[in-house]
């Protein structure tokens, strides 16, 4: 039954985010009527919903009302490593409707986004900017613990310029700039991401060392000493990955490195990695990969792996240089 009612749980969490329960309960218990009034919601339905949230540990009964729990706290917008945006995005229409077609994805081996949404996934996000912004924020929150670990294991000796390829708002590059004052960074993404990247750099006081440029990594990548590819290759087919990697190879300064941060999966993998693999199949027709599969992509692109370091499970930092 726990598996069967999974959709109820996911949508309950999404609703808790939409109703800002974590924020309303951050300073202490409140009644259902108070929360309903603050949200303009139906009082009786709000009380019933809070009772349901109590049954799964999101809230607790307290003083005739409801109190937040440690589980709810991670949905607060200001929580360290907040999951608020991720919870909202993963239960939003662009993903929910596609994942309803996982049986068809398994039978066909192909993405189901066009059948579910009428267009490709990234075209849909461009056509629905509110969902696109939410998805971008969700990916940033998913990235946060991985970036935290990755910046600790990446060697920047001899590096002057970092290029965050497909880096959205440049969270990875900005984290490296904060840790290493001698670096400059460029983030490359589609035009709609550039203002957000510039704003993120200003907010963190790093805009004097940071440049956001619009472009297409299938065509050209800015040159640099260290090129970052975080959660990029799992969106694309093998042939498309080779094109991206070859463009990154051509953009490397002599002695430069490419750093790939992705899930590493195995045939007997447990946990989230195999589920993410199927989600990628249904959404964009792509996959999570084994280390051997990454090695094959690198070889085809004229690159050679020099390191693979585990970080936040199931992710790893894979470093590559031009094959000699």
Automatic annotation (TrEMBL):
Pfam families: Dimerisation, Methyltransf_2
Protein name: SAM-dependent methyltransferase
Domain O-methyltransferase dimerisation: 6-62
SUPFAM superfamilies to which the protein is assigned, alphabetical: S-adenosyl-L-methionine-dependent methyltransferases, Winged helix' DNA-binding domain
UniProt key word RNA-binding: no
Keyword Repeat applies: no
Residues forming the catalytic site: 234 (proton acceptor)
Taxonomic superkingdom: Bacteria
GO biological process: methylation
Domain O-methyltransferase C-terminal: 99-303
Gene Ontology molecular-function annotations: O-methyltransferase activity; protein dimerization activity
This protein's UniProt keywords: Methyltransferase, S-adenosyl-L-methionine, Transferase
